[in-house]
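CORE FACILITY INTAKE
Project code: CF-77B
Contact: R.S. (postdoc)
Sample description: multi-component assembly, two entities in total
Requested service: structural model of the whole complex
Turnaround: standard
Below are the sequence entries exactly as provided by the requester. Do not edit them.
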Amino acid sequence: MSYDLHMSPDDFRRRGHQMVDWVADYLENIEQYPVISQVKPGEVRAALPAAAPEGPEPFETVLRDLDEIIMPGITHWQSPHWYAYFPANSSGPSLLGELAAAGLGVQGMLWATSPAATELETVVVDWMVDLLGLPTEWKTTGRGGGVIQMSASDSTLVALVTAREQAAAPTDTLVVYASDQTHSSLEKGARIAGFSHVRSIRTDAQFALDLAALQQAITADRDAGLIPAFVAVTVGTTATTAVDPVRQTATIATREGMWCHVDAAYAGSAMICPEFRHHQDGLDLVDSYTFNPHKWMLTNFDCNLYYVADRRPLLDAMSILPPYLRNEATLSGDVIDYRDWHVPLGRRFRSLKLWFVLRHYGAEGIRRFIREHVRLAQDLAGRLEADDRFELVAPHPFGLVVFRHTDGNEATAQLAKHLNSSGRVAVTPTMLGDATAIRVSIGSTRTTADHVDQLWSMIGELA
Amino acid sequence: MSYDLHMSPDDFRRRGHQMVDWVADYLENIEQYPVISQVKPGEVRAALPAAAPEGPEPFETVLRDLDEIIMPGITHWQSPHWYAYFPANSSGPSLLGELAAAGLGVQGMLWATSPAATELETVVVDWMVDLLGLPTEWKTTGRGGGVIQMSASDSTLVALVTAREQAAAPTDTLVVYASDQTHSSLEKGARIAGFSHVRSIRTDAQFALDLAALQQAITADRDAGLIPAFVAVTVGTTATTAVDPVRQTATIATREGMWCHVDAAYAGSAMICPEFRHHQDGLDLVDSYTFNPHKWMLTNFDCNLYYVADRRPLLDAMSILPPYLRNEATLSGDVIDYRDWHVPLGRRFRSLKLWFVLRHYGAEGIRRFIREHVRLAQDLAGRLEADDRFELVAPHPFGLVVFRHTDGNEATAQLAKHLNSSGRVAVTPTMLGDATAIRVSIGSTRTTADHVDQLWSMIGELA
């Protein structure tokens, strides 16, 4: 067999340089694109052939189609004008780490299948414990440990399953609690794990979990013969970055024998700055914690960190050892096999990109990055507050500002629509109870004061 | 704030070219490394500092540590001497597609968050239906549809949850069936989804599901008041690539009202060649199907394809729509939102690399690739069979050959140990019942007849 069907090493080098330049050009010119794609449903699909090619096609053709067919259908999450949802950071060192990991192409399911993939992961998740001021017991040198997963949805599912297994009672007698501002992944994870009772607990005027309502719900469920099993605490909710009271909720959870899971998917990155850590005071009492360096820590998706205070219940819930995965290292107990820390068996070498990021920026660089976005958000909030056309609808402890037009829902919806259809920025319209509001999330890798000034001008003009 | 903390565009270009060359050099020189890493537990970890750097570090230092600390801990899955587990293919076009996707850094959770990411995915999963000869009803133009997930474990979990929701009976009354050769992800998925009854069904002399034993188990469960709900059929088991009888099992499933899920994680790629499709005859009767282009179709991990014959029960089980994800396109019903097709919310633009691969190789190139590996495996099986020191322990319909030393378990285990400790190849020792056996999986991207000749010489010398 002739292996001319593979790309030759020289060709890979040449094409690789070309692709790197393509990415560099894209990121340099990203402000020239409309932030939100203008294509209509079906347009991209219609431009592509209905069948795969039978024979090989030149790489130039693929690149041409990438530019001509795919790019118009891209919404530019890496734009500095990206204020929608939450940021999905990327950075030079992260992309280089991703490339190296893809090139190595190892499967880190077991220590034995590539020891460095496991040990570097252990090192960086332990580093992050110190960087974020998390309880030192969460290091793998303590009773706990961290693992890299794909998304906070995956982590929350693992937490729910571990709690369910710990509870050792029929699932339909177990109850899950979370505030009405909790991310949808909690409800989805609970459904997947088979919980039939999920209580949506009222929030206070700040959109934080109402402890009295939580306690009432627990009491009512106990009276009905049910078993409170799990409570989710959010540090930085999706709608407004509200902060649930961690210590008080965890205290209730401890008293009630419930699993306490903290979702800091977005705000966790901010904890690299000590001044934000008071928002999650009480972590010494919780069972699990999840946050996404792929949101606001310069590391491209996917990179979610999941920590447990005690790794034993996690391993009890997740370990299965078939004969073809048996090996000396695993049987010795001297090593970590991360496949036992989550649902999937296979896993990419994701720690490499996080390691590249931490070393390129250093802790101080990431702190500067986070603090600047928070400063810009506070600044924007001040301008909105000082203008009587607008009102803030929620506290803004991090990089998200949520506001509305004082003329009401229709004016607010129109403003969001005009901002987004301008092609110049992307924001997220949302509902808080009956009120329409606009989320402005400041955290894109290259968003600066100039960009936020432009946004502010647009808001003023369109209002 | 000065943004000198980010890597400049010029620096990214320069470092990017350097990293591409690093990957190209690695792949060109890969045969110089011992295939299996020789490090001891803790060695890599001990060579890394206990804390993250406070300030930035030069990229040269990171690259130096990559070479000096990480590389000795790498087990080389991309080596042409890799015969362990199953292949984890990579290729030039796939790496370039991965790089482009990382550079774009879009989140394809909804159609609206980057239409091209959704529509290209739809196009390539539909292309694959034709390429693999799957039922045309599985295209998104039919009643079914495909989606890219991380791993077969994730797909199998989704199938189990969908079946559980469809059954609409208490989970502890539902029963899951699979052969005793089924991948561990079935048991793990069942545990996560909360099933308490998982039956491991006896296999025949060819390690394929014994239909009589399946029917007996179903009858016994019905008699005990339980509800048969799910059966997994494997096309190409992990231990020996055994093939369960798809049509007969699916016929039983249809009669019993059970969900029938096909796991073709490894062998699915072979179906691009029509001559292998008889192994999965009966797909017109099944509910779901999973296979991994990231194993044996030149696409680097992660890239798993999951198909359903009817997308409605899947969407019913997986959809949750919070206010911050509401948007016109979703509400119109004109678009696909892939977040409703699996557990996680966030998702990478994984279709890009599969598209690059399909266009670079064309269907014919992939067929040549698969056929050559199967030919090499048949060739090796013939040599083993002709040598009275060895015996084959299972049929070898694809690229995997499983054999043992006729002197017994100890001789077989020693042979595997010597092969692996030579540093020149990697194989997987396993157990089939009480018998030790050696799995030789031929499917690495650049494995040629010369490599398999070398392996055969080593086996002969060490036996």
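Facility notes:
- Chain A is about 45% helix and 15% strand.
- The mean pLDDT of chain A is 96.
Invoice: internal transfer
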